[in-house]
Structures are given as C-alpha cells and as structure tokens.
C-alpha cells in the first residue's frame, strides 16, 4: 500500500519529553497508585525520551547516574536467585542474611530494570547473571508458562515474553525450557489467528505481539522446527491483525472494540515482525496518533481523552515505523 505522509500533525516532542521528566520527578496525584510499580514508569519515561532522541539533551548526566543508582538499589538476592524489585515501596531493610528469603525478585520488574539500564548505557558489571538464570528457572511452570515470582503471582504470555527478552539480553537460554514455553504459546492461539493471555482466552492485540515477538526471539538452532508457526498460521495472524485497523487509522486490541493508541504499536509491531508492514494504512495510523496527543505531553487511548502514563512509551515506539515527526 502506497502512503503519502503529507500534512501530518506535528509530533509534540518537547511536550512529550516534559511529560516524561515530570513523571520521573514524581507521579501526578492521579497516578500515585503506580508508585509500587515505579520501575515500569521509569522504563516507559526514559525509553520514550531515548526514542525521541532527547535523553541526553533533556536530562543531565547527574540525572542519568541517579536513575541508574536507584535501579541498582532494587537489585535483590533471594533463595530463588536474583533480579529486581518493583520499587522502594517493596524494599525490606533487615541486617540478617536469612531475611533475604523474603526479598524475592519480580520477573516483569526485572525485565523493565534491565531494559532501563540498557537505555542508560550501563555496563551491567553489577549484575548477578548466574542468580538471574536461577530466578528464571524457578519462575517457569510445568505448562511452560512463567509466573511473576516463584510459586505465585500472575502467569500469562506477558511473563513468558519477559523471560525470553532477559535470556536474549544475557545471550543465555539455559534458564528456560524452550520446547515447553513454545508449547504454551501455541496453546494461547485462537481460532481468529491472534493469541490470548491464556489458553482459551480471546485474541488480544497486545498478547499477539508478545507471542509473535517471543517466537521471533527463539534461538536460531530451534527456528528450524516447523511447528513454531506454519505458513498458514502466519497468514491467519496477519489477516486478524490487519482487520483490527479501523477506518480511523487506529488499531483496536480485540475484535469489536474501539481503536486505542497503544494497540497501534502492539498490532503494528507484530505485523512488522511478520513482514507485513506494507499492508498497514500508515497515513491513517499517523493521523490517528496525532489526534491522540495531549498538548501538555502524553497520549490518550483515543482522541479527546486524557493522557495516560502507560500510553506514551508504546506510542512513541511507532515514530520510526511511521517516519513522521
């Protein structure tokens, strides 16, 4: 599909960067419920700044060093291995070494911490790699899925994706039983061609991206397995994703729902991985995202709504995809 990117709305880079910096200094009163997951907020904000090409320009070296230091203070060691905790809210200060058994890492927060440190150009010299592999191993369940913490916590495709990305970053997959993990991904596939969060759940744009991206990350020596994704399955997934782009240009996350800015990334990125970007109405996509911008920074889920803290990062990820701004 040939797209013309004439007369597109401007990308409010300065406003978005200011929004990120405000959230890094302290969450607004409407978002204080996210304080227990501050690592995610930091990841979204500094990654958005980096994608906008403004991280070095809009922050100081002292700022970036302070953020690195704060993240490393969340690095924890427990009986199940090592990783990162969500925030200072979850910290346990106790002099006894035996108390560390209660200081368990969190898989999703470990994923966001490592990516944040990578954006901040950390050298990872403080990382306990062996402990991290042990932690991944302790989070995988019999069905191949992963829980956020050993023996408990949320379990769905999101946590599996986090484990895959961590393994890719470490270049060490010894903490994952890959065949069991792939089996779980395949069980989450639906009749529509998308993937749900669990087996037998409805197809969802976010978890479809996660499933496709996870399969893409599988090491080369396993990619020869024909059962990972057949040609027919690929075409079905592409068809379902393309059907989710509405006349407004935005993508919806589920069949029959309204378009939502963040699904523009999840569905668009999945199509990019599947080699089907040319099927996307890129002009319509850019126009929809332009209307979702809030003048003081951030993106709303749809035009005319309030900006959300979690919307900016996935939406800014589309800037290279749509080549505007």
UniProtKB/TrEMBL annotation:
This protein's record includes keyword Repeat: yes
Gene Ontology molecular function, alphabetical: CAAX-protein geranylgeranyltransferase activity; metal ion binding
Cofactor(s) required, per the database record: Zn(2+)
UniProtKB keywords: Metal-binding, Prenyltransferase, Repeat, Transferase, Zinc
Membrane-spanning parts: none
Domain Prenyltransferase alpha-alpha toroid: 11-310
Zinc keyword on record: yes
Any one cellular-component term (Gene Ontology): CAAX-protein geranylgeranyltransferase complex
InterPro entries per record: PGGT1B-like, Prenyltrans, Terpenoid_cyclase/PrenylTrfase
PANTHER family, per the entry: GERANYLGERANYL TRANSFERASE TYPE BETA SUBUNIT (PTHR11774), GERANYLGERANYL TRANSFERASE TYPE-1 SUBUNIT BETA (PTHR11774:SF4)
Protein family according to the UniProt entry: Belongs to the protein prenyltransferase subunit beta family.
Protein name: Prenyltransferase alpha-alpha toroid domain-containing protein
Organism: Amanita thiersii Skay4041
